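Project channel, design review

CF: Before we commit to the Clytia hemisphaerica constructs, I'd like one complete example in the thread so the newer folks can see what an input/output pair looks like. Taking CNH domain-containing protein.
RD: sounds good, go ahead.
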Amino acid sequence: MSIKTFDLVPVVDRVNPGGEKVKSSIQCIEQIFENLYLGTSDCFIVHYCIEKGTNNIGKTIFMNRLQRNKNLALRKPIVQLLGLPTIGQILVLIDGCVSVVSMYGLEFLRGTPSRDLLRNITVMARNTKPLTSTHGTCQICVGTRRKTIQIITISADECTVLKEINLQGVPSTLSMYQQFICSNVGNQYYMIDFTKSNLQELFMYEAHVKPVVKQLSSDEFLLSGPTDMMGMIVTSKGLSMHQPLSFLDGCQSVAFSYPYILVLGESSITVHSILDQQQKQGISFTGGVLITDFDGQVFIAMQRSVMAFLPVPFNKQIQMLLIDKRIDEAFDLLIVSSKLNPKQYDQTYVKQVKAQAAFVHFADGQFSKALPLFVESCVDPREVIVLYPMMMPSNKNFTPSRPLLHNIKDLTEIVKGSKSVFADSKKMLLNYLEGIRNNFENCKEEIDTTLLKLYAECNHANLSDLITNQNSIFPAEALTWLTQCKRHHALALFHSYLQQHKKSLDIWHKLMKGELTDDKFPGISFVAQFLTDLKDISLVWTSSSWVMKEDQKLGASIFIKREDSSLNSDQVSDFLQKYPIALQSYLEHLVYEKESRSEQHHTHLANIYVDRVVSLLNNTLKEKSEVEEARSKLQSLLESSSLYRVSTVLQKISHFPLYKELATLYGKIDQHQKALKILIYQLKDFDAAEHYCDTIVDGKESFKKQRIFLDLLQIYLYPDPNESNLGPEHYVVAAKTLLNKRQKEFNIVSVLNIIPEEWTVNMVQGFLRGSMRERFSATRESKIESNLQKQFYLQTKEHHITRHKDVVKMTDERLCDFCRKPFTESTAARYPNGKVVHIRCSGNKSMCPVTGKKFK
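CF: and here is what came back for CNH domain-containing protein:
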């Protein structure tokens, strides 16, 4: 599909320098600044001064003024005009000869009808970017009939051949850029590097093809061929980086105005883009002689007139491409326009075009293509939201921007009843709003409310995050929408976000009871955590009860995990009386984690443990492991805590065979013999009895520990026959083992006083030796320690005497070592390093104020 890229505008309506009776036609054209030069078939140079203007309807027109006609009197057609603006001259090629005329007077400067500047020339080209340039000089290249190409430097009064390249034939066309010359010989194109005299073959073309070489941008050249229907773009390295151009009407002449290539054919002019090599416009045109360009301005010459191609503004071209849904081409042209005219086609315009393109894709149902363009264009999100029925918040009115970015009425004309298309469009809107949510502060309410609706419709995982974090959702509409979509858990969360916690808890309670259903509801654990964090204490009391009925341990966590101290522990304990498992968990938290010093807490927990153990003992169906676990908890508390009321606990368990627990309790009230007898007679656990002696007096005086161990030994030595179920020999072995194992815990005299008379020395030989050894060792260590203390005392006394025996001589001339002022009082301070200062200057007694040295 074609778009309009150029307008044809007349420049010179009628050229007839020789008069009406003379048949004359334009052969060549040259422009230098505002000067237009035409070379004719009857050897005239016609000079016009042209300038752009506008007519009364605002269209661009060309105005021309004929400056002069110049007949060169050679009666041959002018083949080529080549302007040299830096030196104010024009090269004229006629019948193989090159003459020089001035730009303004057209008088001959060098070369005359009888004497030419250059001879045997077939074609000329100006180097648009010489490698080196000298002020007042121009560099050209010419093809000659002597099968050479010459590189020439021309100044105002001198012509110098820099280099000559030999060819195998006569060139008929050429173009030059830097050191590269693209030309033809016969039916073969070449790329020539004149600095290296290197000729690179490009490709051959058919015999009937008119050879055309046109420099495009930088080091790219357009060549006609290989057929008359094709054109190739090659670089100075001989590479083709673009696909071939298609010339359906042949190629007679070429002009270039970035990014377009204009080709004059037999009966038409076609416009191709260098960006994608596709034809953009076709114009029926006959009678064209040649088409050429000067600094981007394209002219076409006919027999007796000249017209110009004025480019249609890029913004109009882009709009035409968007209307034709040629998005990629529009973006290519957008990039070009931004580079050529960054002020006019700035980022604001770029974003506008991207927004229009996004809506083009959107209207075609190509939502995946529309999405990134919506984001990149920074279009107002309401432009998109308003197209979706029921999505714009009811409290908001939005008027689309002017000019309109699209002509879409609403989504229904795109969807056309298709559920899949409708779903895809909703998915695109969701992804779009998620991506730009934090970029538009002026319409946060519209974005967040629409997101909530989309999330609610599809039960999206992000719904909870949206409504529990900072948002700008329109509350009334959100509550209605969540209710309609039956997103009960999300509805409860939103009530909580609005500080309507009671409504939230009512909904969750109904979900727990099954009156409402929602697969996104996390369950009772979520409610427990919510109550844990809730600051409204009254709601905590009223709502935690139904949590307790579901899971007592979870209910207890409501009070356990609370970080504030707003709840009184006694109140909580009273509240949990109806829920024993929860109460136990809470008291364990107070005792073990919070390290409560309350006797009530410890006693209460101990009673709960006792009740649990007694209950299990009375239930013969319970597993033994369960009983052992319960007793282990009780024993651990009884041993580790010293804050419970022992008498209360002792009274509860005294009638049950909980001997280990009884022993611990008797130990707590210093009835150690009772405790030890239980361990020995009832449990027959001698190791436990020894362990009892170690732990029950932990941290107390050593003599008490010796007293308890002596009690244990006495029980072994004189067992009660009414309570003991073991033979005397067992106790004798236990006594001997205890004496030999724990020698340090016994006073030898006390032991000897209670040992039965029938025991021989051999029976206590090990104990006696060990005890004596320990006694002698202790005596020696005591003497050593005493002597060391005496030595330390003597050293300290010597140091003290040494420090105090030095004489401090005070005179009227002596100055304070710190402030350098004389002493006016009878007192002074002297430091160990010999510095003497005023009392007021001494400051810290442990640090010298003069040197800063510290003394211990």
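RD: helpful, thanks. The first strand starts at residue 6 and ends at 12.
CF: The longest helix spans residues 765-805.
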